[in-house]
Amino acid sequence: MEDMKKAVLDGFEKAYGTKDGVKAYFAAGRVNLIGEHTDYNAGHVFPCALTIGTYGAAKKRDDNKMRFISLNYEGSSVVETSLNDLTPSDEAGWTNYPKGVVWAFEKRGFKLPCGFDMAIYGNIPAGSGLSSSASLEVLTGFILRDLFGFDVTNQDLALIGQYSENNYNGCNCGIMDQFAVAMGKENNAIFLDTADLSFEYAPIRLEGCKIVITNTNKKHKLTDSQYNARRSSCELALSELQKVIDIKGLGELSIEEFEAHKDAIPDEDRRRKAKHAVYENQRTIEAVAALKAGDLNKFGELMNASHVSLRDDYDVTGEELDTLAEEAWKIPGVIGSRMTGGGFGGCTVSIVKDEAIDTFKEQVGKAYKEKIGYDCTFYTVEIGGGPAVL
Ligand code: GLA
User: Fold this and answer.
1) Domain range summary for the chain, segments of one domain joined by +
2) Could you read off the pLDDT of 349-369 as tens digits, one per residue?
3) d(CA 205, ligand 1 centre) in Å
4) Which residue of 41, 138, 227, 230 sits with most ligand 1 atoms within 8 Å of its CB, as the best mutation to test the pocket?
5) Residue 171's pLDDT is what?
6) Residue 93 region, left (φ>0) first, then alpha (ψ -120 to 50), else beta?
7) CB 266 within 8 A of CB 240
8) What CATH number matches the domain at 2-203, 3.20.20.70, 3.30.230.10, 2.30.29.30, 3.30.43.10?
9) Three-state secondary structure string covering the chain
10) For residue 36, which atom of ligand 1 is closest to its CA?
11) Span from the CA of 36 to the centroid of ligand 1 (angstroms)
12) Angle between the 132-148 and 96-107 helix axes, to the nearest 10 degrees?
């Protein structure tokens, strides 16, 4: 943490020639333990913030300019824009994320009185599906609140981040990622009902086990992927079900209710997508209850069932994620393993007994390389807290 803080402050000074009055900030990445593709279906999710994330350094300016630099790309230079130019563009690249947040604040009536300079430096692996974009959005919102004194809560920062991602950056994501980053609490996961944003923290005490994330290292981008298409399928399935049952979201349905009414969805493929949303929501509720009751094995079984449903019904896994999960299931000492995040690439999350971690890495790593042709990467992670001034 101290190293990253120093690096981002040094990077700021090098890029902008001053360190006076510059502050350092942090916002986490996230991993979702269970409840996948339920957050845009009025269902439950169970993510946690991580100790890896995005570091930022920032300072207000006297004019309307906004300048950004990322220290993650070697030799990268300062990108300069202005408050008068808040339209997304291909040339703006990653700076569309902080610009989108500025734009979203203005849409809420929070106009920036002047511009700012910002440097960022992250340690979330690129393209890993551990929410580097939500981390950057919440970081930016947190910085703007700190610099300009905007009266917004952390939950607002999540909503502003999601709004900018949906309407400025073109990914129709749900609220899970931004919420996990903005509301994170050390050693706790967040049991969030996305229907009304009610939530509770659930302490994660994994005695004798760790959370291991495995990166497929497959290149993917959510906006390019079929994420938005999945969301549309669910919306259509919902409108079909609404002809026979009075619901506002798929997350309102019990398994029995879904089974009784599913024929209202004529298309078989779409019916399977809706089935996943309903079953996964119920699985998430059950998994959190199991965890509270101290039944980690049950929690692990439900993680595995979640992967199967994402593979067979929701069709968002692919050979890389399936290989990682299926190889993990073979290893004694693996409590549970599943894909996490949007899918199509990115990472799996596994709960592994301490004594099995070496075998897990060795066997899964070897099988993956043999089948896929390149290496996967392992990270043993800790659950981190919400955004902070450092
Ligand atoms: C991505 C989205 C989230 C959520 C997950 C799937 O991470 O950003 O809103 O929909 O996929 O659970």
Assistant:
1) 2-203
2) 999 999 999 999 999 999 999
3) 25
4) 227
5) 86
6) left
7) yes
8) 3.30.230.10
9) CHHHHHHHHHHHHHHHCCCCCCEEEEEEEEEECCCCCCCCCCCEECEEEEEEEEEEEEEECCCCEEEEEECCCCCCCCEEEECCCCCCCCCCHHHHHHHHHHHHHHHCCCCCCCCEEEEEEECCCCCCCCCHHHHHHHHHHHHHHHHHCCCCCHHHHHHHHHHHHHHCCCCCCCCHHHHHHHHCECCEEEEEECCCCEEEEEECCCCCEEEEEEECCCCCCCCCCCHHHHHHHHHHHHHHHCCCCCCCCHHHCCHHHHHHHHHHCCCHHHHHHHHHHHHHHHHHHHHHHHHHCCCHHHHHHHHHHHHHHHHHCCCCCCHHHHHHHHHHHCCCCEEEEEEECCCCCCEEEEEEEHHHHHHHHHHHHHHHHHHHCCCCEEEEECECCCCEEC
10) 12
11) 7
12) 50
Q: Dump pLDDT digits (tens) for 121-174.
A: 999 988 888 999 999 999 999 999 999 999 999 999 999 999 999 999 988 899
Residues with CB under 6 A from ligand 1: 36-37, 39-40, 173-174, 176-177, 341-342
Catalytic annotation present for 177:
yes
Pairing of strands 198-203, 188-193: antiparallel
Q: Identify which of 222, 180, 163 has the alpha carbon closest to the alpha carbon of residue 45.
A: 180
Q: Are strands 65-70 and 116-122 parallel, antiparallel or unpaired?
A: parallel
- What's the pTM? 0.96
Low pLDDT (below 50) residues in the chain: 223
Q: How far is the CA of 212 from the centre of ligand 1 (A)?
A: 19
CA of 37 to the centre of ligand 1 (A): 6
Q: What is the pLDDT of residues 260-274, one digit of tens each?
A: 999 999 999 999 999
Report the share of the chain in percent with pLDDT over 70.
Answer: 98
HSE of 87, CA atoms in CB hemisphere, 13 A: 2
- The answer to whether the beta carbons of residues 101 and 144 sit under 8 Å apart is yes
